[in-house]
Amino acid sequence: MFNPSRDQVRQFFFDVWAKYRAGQPLTGAEQPALEAVLAHPEYHAILEHPERFRDREYRPEDGETNPFLHLAMHLALSEQLAIDQPPGIRTHYQRLLTRHGDAMAAQHAALECLAEAIWQVQRHAAPFDAAAYLACLDQHAD
User: Fold this and answer.
1) Taking every pair of C-alpha atoms in the chain, what is the biggest distance, in angstroms?
2) Which of 7, 75, 103, 112 reaches 20 to 30 Å from 39, CA-CA?
3) By residue range, what is the domain housing residue 123?
């Protein structure tokens, strides 16, 4: 399984943005990553200055959202939907999309569930609970 470091993830997003700005073709995961970046113009200035933001710490206790984590979660959701893993996520996501009427709002609702599921894994040193994740998606779709 691919397990990039924090620096590799950040460099990936810096590179995607630089390639986009230079009009270079994107491949593989770069296209869905760009879609997430374009949907978040508040992160564009960060991606323009890798030297300033590559090593920056984003702490929740300081009220900061980590833009790289947020974008990576969008990419993770995109991959989950592409392969329907966990099984049935496409159907659950479609319900979110119907309820919210907007892809970005539906994705952000799904990301709340994904963040909770990841936090539970870390907190309890337990396997990923796909059933709880999908149930959370359903709660956000009601």
Assistant:
1) 45
2) 7
3) 84-142
Q: What is the pTM of this model?
A: 0.91
What would the mean pLDDT of 18-27 be, rounded to a whole number? 97
Mind giving me the DSSP string for 72-84?
Answer: HHHHHHHHHHHHT
Structure tokens at 136: 């959370």
- Residues 96/110, Cβ–Cβ less than 8 Å: yes
Among 10, 29, 64, the domain-final residue is: 64
Round to the nearest angstrom and report the end-to-end CA distance of the chain: 34
Check residue 2 and give its pLDDT. Answer: 64
Q: CA-to-CA distance for 142 and 59, rounded, in angstroms?
A: 31
Number of domains the chain is built from: 2
pLDDT of res. 4: 86
Least Cα distance to 71 among 2, 132, 12 occurs for: 12
DSSP character for 45?
Answer: H
Q: Across the chain, what does the average pLDDT equal?
A: 94
Q: Please determine, for residue 61, whether its predicted confidence score (pLDDT) is greater than 90.
A: no
